[in-house]
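Suppose a colleague, Dr. K., hands you the sequence of a protein chain of 318 amino acids and asks what its three-dimensional shape might be. Before reaching for any lab equipment, you can write down a predicted structure in token form. Begin with the sequence itself:
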Amino acid sequence: MEKKSLKILLAAPRGFCAGVDRAIKIVELALEKYGAPVYVRHEIVHNKFVVDNLRDQGAVFVEELHEIPDDGQPVIFSAHGVAKSVPEAAQAREMFYIDATCPLVSKVHREAERHYKNGDQIILIGHAGHPEVIGTIGQLPEGAVILVETESDVDTITVQDQTRLAFCTQTTLSVDDTAGIVQALQAKFPDIKGPHKEDICYATTNRQMAVKEIAASSDYMLVLGAPNSSNSNRLVEVARNYGCPRAKLVQRAAEIDWLDTDMDGVGTLGITAGASAPEILVEEVIESARMHYDVTVEEVTLAQEDVIFKLPKALSAA
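The predicted structure, expressed as tokens, is then:
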């Protein structure tokens, strides 16, 4: 039977960002230098394929430090960042820990601390329960940070002093949604201070811009990413908001039913990947599509990324 034609629009940039690449390298180099096991508090990045691969190499993933024995092996903090209480607890147990927090998340931590030391109350725009948000709130004393998730939340918050406020944001949010929340904050609190430089990271912004570029031309959009990945979920939302209501988050090619009615009438398929999804998963989806369709691929590039973050000193010589 002759295969139907399918044009794939491949968004670029997509996939790994510099912070994710650095975090994964930290685990791999720690295993190489210190041997297994290497403990990782929380998923190093939100991607099952990546986590399973590192687990196969000898990484042991835990949620809390009390799960780790006193065996002298390294413990690595995830790219999302941790509350100050975590390294303090590690130090109290004389653990050897390596911090894989993305430098752009660390930037938000330092901003929040700086504003707090200057006497400002902090408003954090982010998603409750996300590890990055927990880590950012945990940089300051309890009650010092007000979390805002939506524009409607702005209407209900009360502050100590409207003239002593500053806001910061989770790095993986929707650029458009965050802009609306910031506008609402500035309308309610005209004196509120913002970050010197945008908190939403370059990779999040670039991936959303690339999706915006191809969404309206796509009959269907697949986003490679994990269900608990904030930036991947935002890409699905962006696709739907910018002309492709049939957008879906998938982790692997095996989740795609090419014969499903969802694919009816699809002549152009948009594909992207969240910042913690490796390129091999994109290639896997394209190869799976070739089994069912006569596929042509067009890459649509919105930006070139050349950011590289330094490794921690404990591993830089590895």
